[in-house]
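Repro:
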Amino acid sequence: MSSPATTPSPVQNARVLLKELQEKFAPFRDNLPLAIGIDKQLKERLPDVDRKTLRIALGLHTNSTRYLKAMARATQRVDLDGNPAGEVPEAHRTHAEETLRERFRKEAEQRKAQRKVEREAEEAERAAQRRADKLNQLAAKFSRRS
């Protein structure tokens, strides 16, 4: 029996599965817009794959920045073999664009906050150095008087 520390999490299993899907199927590797119902096609071709792991892997893939960028400018969806499998509705392109915009906005806010924290730490370090320098000057001044 394996311990919880050595048992891969569902997300870890999904990442492994996603790598396999990228190796086996060009639409995954090339981040092409996937056909609606691609999960059913995958279950037919890979019957031993756990449904939950497959759902997580598909979520990781379709929420990746590369996939969303491709989706934002795509007009056609494809099946596992890369054959056309329907048009990408404008609403889906718009959703991908909005998701990317929101993601980039949040990332910019996080970078800005991180830079602020770093600036504050540098300022605190400089202030501490100035205090230490003043203490050393005072210590030197009073040690000369005795």
